[in-house]
Amino acid sequence: MNPMQRYLILEDGTAFAGTGFGASIVSSGELVIQTGMTGYQETITDKVNTGCIIAFTVPTVGLVGVNRDNYESIDPSIRGVVVNELAHVTAHQGGKMSLADFLDQLGIPGITQIDVRALRRHIDATGPQKASIVDAADEHAFDQLRALVLPHNQVQQVSTERPYPSPGTGRNIVVVDFGLKHSLLREFAVRDCNLTIVPATTTAERILNLDPDGVVLSDGPGDPEDSQGALPMISGIQEHLPLLSIGLGYELFAMANGATTKRLAHEHHGLNFAVREVATGRIDITSHDHSFTVDPASLEHNEELLITHLNILDQTVEGLRHRRFPAYGVQFQPEGAPGSNDADHVLTEFMELIDAEKDKAGKEATRYE
């Protein structure tokens, strides 16, 4: 297809002219600025970005093409891709197709020759905005964009409709799917876990009937306020089983224990956020992809939750632990993919917590025999 001029327009009336690639459709969504230097395939296929147009600030995107090992889902649900320069030659031996062909097959539009760093500065100054990739930046296009109502059912769109297994021979873990990444399942697989993945709407009773050793609340898209239906489930399982929560799951874990959430003034979408563990001073370089955070003001008099991790740059609360139950969570993505694997010890520690709780339960049972 011959290159054609297209436009990225924002709801405040700003327009950026560029060249289209991928699908040639008109598409709209919430604009997300991704600062990661690598991992565009993982970012594009991550369900946390459902409904978003992703703008990559790295100067050139597409050099390694698309390969079979870097999918985080098989049916990406983003609305568009914005880049400064698109690589047309795949230089990686594992690349099976170009980024342009990949997006074209998926029906996702892209636009290149955009000054994404100027775009990032603009969004930093104005705050989050809706955006569209269009053929003409006229008043009709802007009127349609301003009238667009963004959906509030992103988790419902991406969560599995039915439970399914990821078989293993070790610890039995239930994963509640709010929009999970394949790399999370890979991390549990290498730890010899037997997984059952269940829908976001699953009740605490149903989960407990599966007799798991532990429960994981996955990351996912959207405003946590739109997923409050999961709070009774979280309250119903945290006192009975070890619980690990990640991303959106972490925000919901906090809400189930009396905290509130808010939108970040400067959102976290990148791979190099330094996070400090409060108890030890340990610093991890972590992968983030979130627009919301737990409001620290709601934790000041909270008797249930203890802050475990803080973002070094802006002091965002990045981790919480329950004071009475074997339950905790992190805002960042411990499995990385893309990004550093500094924080994968969070998953290892969850294995250790499960083993410790099982050992304690065994000793309690022996004492009463």
UniProtKB/TrEMBL annotation:
* Ranges of residues in domain Carbamoyl-phosphate synthase small subunit N-terminal: 4-134
Read off the InterPro entries from this record: Anth_synth/Amidotransfase (IPR050472), CarbamoylP_synth_ssu (IPR006274), CarbamoylP_synth_ssu_N (IPR002474), CarbP_synth_ssu_N_sf (IPR036480), Class_I_gatase-like (IPR029062), CPSase_GATase1 (IPR035686), GATASE (IPR017926)
Q: In which pathway does it act?
A: Pyrimidine metabolism; UMP biosynthesis via de novo pathway; (S)-dihydroorotate from bicarbonate: step 1/3; Amino-acid biosynthesis; L-arginine biosynthesis; carbamoyl phosphate from bicarbonate: step 1/1
Subunit (UniProt): Composed of two chains; the small (or glutamine) chain promotes the hydrolysis of glutamine to ammonia, which is used by the large (or ammonia) chain to synthesize carbamoyl phosphate. Tetramer of heterodimers (alpha,beta)4.
Q: Name the job this protein performs.
A: Small subunit of the glutamine-dependent carbamoyl phosphate synthetase (CPSase). CPSase catalyzes the formation of carbamoyl phosphate from the ammonia moiety of glutamine, carbonate, and phosphate donated by ATP, constituting the first step of 2 biosynthetic pathways, one leading to arginine and/or urea and the other to pyrimidine nucleotides. The small subunit (glutamine amidotransferase) binds and cleaves glutamine to supply the large subunit with the substrate ammonia.
Q: Which family does it belong to?
A: Belongs to the CarA family.
Protein's name according to its UniProt entry: Carbamoyl phosphate synthase small chain
Which classification does the entry list for the species?
Bacteria, Bacillati, Bacillota, Bacilli, Lactobacillales
Tell me the gene name: carA
